[in-house]
Amino acid sequence: MDKPIEHYWKIRLENLKKSLEENNFEVFLANNSSEAKAIVQKEILPKTGAKSVSWGGSLTFTKTGLYHDIKNNPETWIIS
Question: Which end of the chain is more exposed for a tag (fewer CB within 10 A), N or C?
Answer without folding.
Answer: N
